[in-house]
Amino acid sequence: MGDGMDRVLDIGIIGTGARGIGCFGTLIGRRTDARVAALADTNPVRLAVAAGRLSLEVARYTDAGEMLTRERLDAVIVTTPDRFHATDVIAALRAGVSHVLVDKPLATTAQDCLRVAQAARETGGHVAIGFNLRHLPLARKIKEIIQDGLIGDLMLIQNQEFYDGGRTYMARWNRRREWSGGLWIHKGSHDFDIFNWWNSRGTPMRVGAFAGVNALRPDEIPFAVTPDTPVGPYCGVCAYADICPDRVTDTGGGLFDDAAAQADGYRKDLCVFLSDKDTHDNGIALVEYDNNVRASHSECFICNFDDRRYTIVGDRGLLMASVASPDRIELRPRWGQDQIIAVPPAGEGMHGGADPLLLEDFLSSIRGGTPPASTLRDGARAVAVGEAAEISWREHRLVNVGELADLSDPALDV
Ligand SMILES: NC(=O)c1ccc[n+]([C@@H]2O[C@H](COP(=O)([O-])OP(=O)(O)OC[C@H]3O[C@@H](n4cnc5c(N)ncnc54)[C@H](O)[C@@H]3O)[C@@H](O)[C@H]2O)c1
């Protein structure tokens, strides 16, 4: 872009929840080259709390369409629940916004990703995806090691993910497939994207997955429940809140307190055991690429720690790394000496310091007219693999990614 972009960039945020305000709004507030110019959220109480948290006298809209019509924005960040992503991004593009950052996943189906791509192509707009994992120095170093041929040609990529916060998925919208696409898309898209990025010479072709709810279910409540006093329906009123080890207490600094919940009924403390859900609390997915590479990803949402543990095998060696130990990569060549490769630290910030780097990348792409680190094609490929995993475990079959969308569609090249 370059032209006239030396001024302070006006950014609009659609969806003023945890990511919209806790992450992007707060990070933009610390910058001098961009400012939050407008906020949109369907919940007026949450909007007011959001503006207060950012200490901003800012234009507020309960209708994102109105914000897009009235404001002259240089960019929009979409942080609504996943089911609204495609609609919101397309609305922003059609309203003439030239740069949109949509948090992952790009959409909840591969077909919706193509609809976004078509809108981008028709409007000339640019879309970046919130794949913050790509900005972790550890992930970048792994890519460098692969590109430099230190482990030879890739054969296997393995990740075991443990996510302490995952149980809270079952207490909010994420637990419903119609809202999140299912957790293979909602959460797994991060991991399928990083696999696709590391294995940049390959295209994901076939997916097989298994998943289930083993722990966060009514017959697995880890304390005694008397028949006349049921648990739930949400932590705020639950008779067992004091003894429940999975109690959710975080109100997002007021964004999700009772007053906000009264306006739209949206709570983040639904009972993780009783609430209706059609997603999983654990699962394993396998991905086969067209370049003789295979990947596996397992995710577990009921552990007491966060980590992603990688083993990446090539025909000349393997590397092992853990996001919880982000300063080192263990390199084990097939022939020769093992090595520990040091990884530079990330800066401060959420997600191991990756979120400020993600925002920096987005703003630089606007100023420099350069592509962001992750593009529409990346977003669509990750969603397609996640969607294939969803279908695979529900229908008990291997799924060809090509069944879902034509990922060679040139619209994805914008
Ligand atoms: N990149 C990451 O690491 C990461 C981490 C967490 C969440 N996310 C993604 O960020 C997005 C937001 O997640 P979150 O945890 O902040 O959710 P959240 O529930 O905290 O916030 C969502 C907000 O959107 C608002 N909203 C709901 N429907 C809306 C609509 N139609 N129009 C406008 N606003 C609407 C809600 O009132 C709420 O304020 C999701 O897509 C999620 O997948 C990404």
Structure summary:
The protein is an alpha/beta fold and 414 residues long. The chain has helices at residues 18-29, 44-53, 64-70, 85-94, 110-123, 137-147, 177-180, 183-186, 188-198, 258-264, 354-368, 376-395; strands at residues 9-14, 34-40, 59-61, 75-78, 99-102, 126-129, 154-162, 204-212, 282-289, 294-300, 307-314, 317-322, 328-333, 339-342, 399-400. It is built from twelve helices and 15 strands.
What does this structure look like?
This protein is of the alpha/beta class and 414 residues long. It has 3 domains: 124 residues, Rossmann fold (3-Layer(aba) Sandwich), CATH 3.40.50.720; 191 residues, Dihydrodipicolinate Reductase, domain 2; 47 residues, no CATH class. It has 12 helices and 15 strands. The chain has a 9-stranded mixed β-sheet with strand order 14-13-12-11-7-10-9-8-15. A 6-stranded parallel β-sheet has the order 3-2-1-4-5-6, sandwiched between helices. A hairpin with a 2-residue loop joins β11 and β12. The radius of gyration is 21 Å and the shape is globular. It starts with 8 loop residues before the first strand and ends in a 14-residue tail after the last strand. 49% of the residues are buried. The model has no long low-confidence stretch (mean pLDDT 95). It binds nicotinamide-adenine-dinucleotide. The site of nicotinamide-adenine-dinucleotide has 25 residues, from α1.
The assigned structural class equals alpha/beta
Which strand-content bin applies to the residues? 15-25%
**What is the name of the CATH class of the largest domain?**
Alpha Beta
Tally of distinct domains: 3
Helix content: 25-40%
Rg computed from alpha carbons, rounded to a whole number of angstroms: 21 Å
Outline the low-pLDDT stretches: none
CATH superfamily of the largest domain: Dihydrodipicolinate Reductase, domain 2
CATH architecture of the largest domain: 2-Layer Sandwich
Mean pLDDT: 95
